[in-house]
Every structure is written in C-alpha cells, then in structure tokens.
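thought: fold this chain, then report.
action: predict
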Amino acid sequence: MPLEMRPNCERCGTTLQMDADARICSYECTWRLNCADSFGIFVPTAVGNSFGDL
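observation:
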C-alpha cells in the first residue's frame, strides 16, 4: 500500500499540490522539500524515523 501524501506541509503549512515535490515518512507526515532538507535525515515528529532516501 502506498503512503498517502497530506495536503499541507507539516512544518510551514503550505498547501501541497498532488504533483508537488515532497518528502513523506513512514507515518505519512508530509513536508515540502525545503522544509524536509532543513531537518537533515531525521524526522522531527517521529524520533528515530528517517526519510530513507535523503
């Protein structure tokens, strides 16, 4: 089952189009690329979880 992209960035609240470049973690938290890149590899809302493809 594919992960579901959320309609807004978890960090800044920007509305994301379905074809937007974004990062999604295994808990389906969704971030714009610029916001995700500021975290490095670890997801702030899920300690120990990572994006995996960064």
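thought: worth noting. The mean pLDDT is 80.
final: tokens above.
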